[in-house]
Every structure is written in structure tokens, then in C-alpha cells.
Amino acid sequence: MRCKHAVIMCIYNGDNVNNVKLAVDSILNQTVNNHLYIYVDGEVNPFLNTYLNKEESNHQIFIFRSEFNLGLAYGLNFLIDKIQSKSYEYISRMDGDDISLLDRLERQELYLNKHPDVDVIGSYCTEFGSDCSLPVKKLPQYHDELVRFSVLRCPLIHPTVMFRAKVFKHGLRYPINTYLSEDLALWYEMIYLGLKFGNVPDVLLKYRLTDSTISRRKGLKKAGNEIALRFSYMKKMKLITLSNLILLSFKFISHFMPLIITKIMYKKLR
Q1: N or C, which end of the chain is more exposed by having fewer CB within 10 Å?
Q2: Domains plus CATH for the chain?
Q3: Rounded CA gap, 192 and 265, in Å?
Q4: Dihedrals phi, psi of 126, to nearest 5 degrees
Q5: CB 70: neighbour CB atoms within 10 A?
Q6: The predicted structure's pLDDT at residue 262
Q7: Which residues make beta-bridge pairs with 206?
Q8: Residues 244-249, mean pLDDT to the nearest whole number
Q9: Number of Cβ within a 10 Å radius of residue 50
């Protein structure tokens, strides 16, 4: 039977081997046939290296390694390039520390079959691992809502995303000139190109949220890059309003708040 699903994942030195194994198993045991493509971004710890060496014999997994750490966007683009000659219909994202529900791919494929105008979909998730984790993180379901939502928030939860493979056929890739905002930059590029978004209104992923996850989203470089992206989006989509500008200013300031305040905001304002 032809395999319609490819899943792309990047692995890093700091990843915990037990978390990676849970993530990988959650894809290998999906209710639909799939191939998992893994990009190992630079050298990894011995425990993770031993696990990956063992998995290289699995015919369902394709592993590629880089000598140096080149970043998430580069790794994902590398994998997308690798599978362009294949006949997959869907390309899905997965991270090495999250857990997909076992029917995730099947339910997302069903959604795309029912919505032929939609090109990219995500889903709700449940968070775990932090005292500010949400039992259910919800996002708007429909494209027009997501376009407006994207001014200040991210329209898709990155590791829940499934693309129609054809969206990458003409060279569209993750922008590599951003800092920790490659997913948001890609969503904006897709919206500019007229691609349609949606979200399955069900939890299809368990998202690991830790203090280090939150801390990575703080700081001047991350703040400056993200705010520049968002302001450019507001201009291109003609969404500049006084309220949006004020809220964008608050979002910039939030990148510099103490972690304890940021965690309270995560719990109360999402």
C-alpha cells in the first residue's frame, strides 16, 4: 500500500532520550501508515545517539545527521527537500518532546478530505510539565478568524501541523532569517500566498511545556524579531489599528518580564 504520510522531526543534543522515544513511538504507532524523517541537528548525547543508531534499522524511519547545529528551519527545510521526489500527500510536524495521540494523522487526514479548500491544519493540544500548563489549549478553527488572530498570537501549534504536500512543490520553505520564529514566519508567508488554514477542534497532541520552553521565548533578540514580523504582517494585511498597536507594544514588553510573571500570564491570558 502506498504511504501517504511523511512526518518531519528535528532532534538536538539537549533532548532527553526517553522523551524522544515517546515522541517517536507515538508516530510509529499511528492508526495510518506513515514514514518518519528525522534530522539530527549536530552532535547529540551518547544515550540519544545509541537510541538513534538502533532505530536506523527501522524501515519506517529515515535519519539524517548534521555535523554542526544549523537550526530548526534549516533542518525542516532539509527534510522537506529530501521528500519532494516522493509521492506523499501529507507532511506533518512533530517535535522530539511531545506525544501525538495515536489517531492524530488519521483524524487530520479526514479533516482535509472534508475541507478540500484548506491547505494547512493544526489542532488543539493538552499541555503538561509545568504549573502553568493548560488542560486544553484552544485556537480558532477557521481561516478568516485565524488571519485576525495571527496579529498577536500564533494561528497554529507547530507540532500539531499537517500540510498538504503540494504546498511545498514550488519552493516554499521555512524562512531561515528569523530567530526562534520560523514557524510564525512561515504561517505569514502562507497567508500572503493565499493558502488556507484550519484547526481540528479536538486535542490531538500532548505538548510538553517546561520553564526552559518559556524562557527560550524571552529576551531582546526574540522580542525584536517577533515584533518586526508581526508589524510587517499588520501592514501587509491592513490590520493596523490603535488597539492592535497597543497590544503589540504590551507583547514586546512581556518578553522582558520575570519568569514568574510570564508563567502567570501563560496561565491566565491564553
Answers
A1: N
A2: 5-269 (3.90.550.10)
A3: 30
A4: -110, 135
A5: 16
A6: 85
A7: 99, 126
A8: 94
A9: 12
